[in-house]
Amino acid sequence: MSLYELSGVSMTHDGRRILDVAHLGLEMGQAYSLQGPNGAGKSTLLGVLAFLTPPHAGEVRFAGKVVVWSESELRPLRRQVGLVEQHPIMFSRSVRDNVGFGLKLRGLTGLELSRRVEDALDLVGLTHLADAHAPRLSGGETQRVAIARALACGPRVLLLDEPTASVDTQNRAVIEQVVADMRDSRGMTIVLCTHNRSQAWALCPNVIYMEAGRVVSRALVNAFAGQFFEEDGQAWCRIATGFCMPVDTTLRGRGRVVVDPEQITLKPVDGPGLNRGPIFRIELEGEQVLVSVDLGRPLRVQVPFSKFRAQGLDVGALVEARFAASGIECSV
Amino acid sequence: MFLDSLWSALTLLTSMDAELFFIVGVSLNISIWSTLAACVLGIPIGFGIGIGRFRGKQALITFFNTMLALPTVVIGLLVYSLLSRRGVFGPLGWLYTQKAMIIGQIILITPIIVAFTIAAVGRVDDRFRRTALTLGATPWQVALVVLREARFSIMAAVVAAFGRVISEIGISMMLGGNAKGFTRTMTTAMALEYDKGEFVLSLALGIVLLALSLVVNTALGYVQGRTVR
User: Fold this and answer.
1) DSSP H or E run through A200
2) CB distance A75–B138 less than 8 Å?
3) Which residues of chain A are at the B interface, by a Cβ-Cβ cutoff of 8 Å?
């Protein structure tokens, strides 16, 4: 069941459209990574998902109900969502009071309050700092306390805005472990905004890729400018010498193609030819391997780890890329 | 000559001179009550303007900033015209009483507290508001969070306002009349003694004024230091 349904949601700032989501559905209990370049609208989208920023147009549904952007209607919704910003701020109180802040707003007191604060701090491994003055914590500790503060309230949704962007390795490991635990054991819906693709693959394999305020169907890792032409009744797009792919389009002349890295297959070959080139980089991303092939332009191919191992490919190996027409988007 | 006067002033202070302590008492009475009243008025107004989002906000801020430069003699004249026998509030008989002085001082320092509170609230990081909202706070609870984070700046505004009142002379002279045993404050007494060429009491009162300022600021610094430690 969809927890969030966004339709035609848009926001404009100084005449520039900063968010333009035609449709986006987030399933309950799923973990999503929100990716895209800076200024793509990721944080703005998180603001909408946290019910903090009303969109200028469009409809947002939460748990099947249309969200009414009035203060009294939003409060119960906000209480179901935990948002951890990229640079969270600590109230000028102790760590314990910070973590218990949301619980106190919900009327919790005494032993129950203490227990839930302790549990949340234990989750992020900071029980020893419970009585410390929160604004004095380091950046990594602040992130962990902010996560504990959000989780203490037991939200249905956890929104994380680049939580490991400015923390050291040790704190990053703890934060990643907490997110993984939430995903696996509590069935929480998680949206993790990150630039770290490996982290995204490992923690939140459902990718929402944003560019210029829009949710695009897949990561634009293989976006090329090319020349469309027809030969023997088949449309082609030439990207570079020896790099030409069959396309299903009536477009002709200069244009743009985006190739889904998951819909390209690689075959080991012995000599040079069309769409053939050497592998120059291999990256492991969770259960997937991202292979970069030099076809005059770098082509990224995503292969399941098991299949990659079975093929016995390595850096320097000569391969031929084969494209599926369904995995290619053409535009002018 | 200065050292002689200073020595005499210190002797006067240590001798627990009744007149001197009465004058200090009047000054403190006026300063404390007018500061309290200005806080009750000014902090909510400043906070409301600072946190609110409404049309005319900038105009209000400009108004209170302009009021900061209101000359004390103008306030004195205004309150005098209201409290004089032929004034609207003449029948109250408050002219040349401490009440009249307190009213004048309230008019003087309320804009200080309002303007400083607006600035204090404006400086509070917007992430406090956002964080409180995401944790499920009501608008009232969000306002309390912002107020809490701005508290030291607001306290500094209160201290500045108190300092302004206790060292003020124009309003005190015009509305109090410097009546010995009734409305004579430290500053009006100092001015009178200066006119008479008697520096001993002036210096003694000057020392008390400085000492009071030191005590208030030290107390503020102590509270701030304790909280951020």
Assistant:
1) helix A197-203
2) yes
3) 50, 52, 71, 75, 78-79, 81-83, 85, 87-89, 91-92, 101-102, 105-106, 133, 135, 149-150, 153
ipTM, two decimals, is 0.78
Q: What is the pTM of this model?
A: 0.75
Question: Each residue's pLDDT tens digit in chain A (332 positions)?
Answer: 789 999 999 999 988 889 999 999 999 999 999 987 778 899 999 999 999 999 999 999 999 999 999 988 999 999 999 999 999 999 999 999 999 999 999 998 999 999 999 999 999 999 999 999 999 999 999 999 999 999 999 999 999 999 988 888 889 999 999 999 998 887 799 999 987 777 887 888 788 988 778 887 655 578 888 999 999 889 999 999 999 999 988 888 898 888 888 889 999 999 889 999 999 988 776 667 889 999 999 998 988 888 888 988 899 999 999 998 888 888 77
Residue of B nearest to A77 (CA): B136
The 3-state DSSP class for residue A156 equals coil
Q: Per-residue DSSP letters for chain B? A: -HHHHHHHHHHHHHTT-HHHHHHHHHHHHHHHHHHHHHHHHHHHHHHHHHH---TTHHHHHHHHHHHTT--HHHHHHHHHHHHSTTSTTGGG--TTSHHHHHHHHHHHHHHHHHHHHHHHHHHS-HHHHHHHHHTT--HHHHHHHHHHHTHHHHHHHHHHHHHHHHT--HHIIIIITT-TTTT--HHHHHHHHHHHT-HHHHHHHHHHHHHHHHHHHHHHHHHHHHHH-
Query: What type of residue is A180?
Result: A
Return phi, psi of residue A184, to 5°.
-85, -45
Handedness of CA B79, B85, B90, B95 (dihedral sign): positive
Q: Which of B127, B135, B228 sits opposite A102 (nearest CB)?
A: B135
| β-strands A214-216, A206-211 pairing | antiparallel
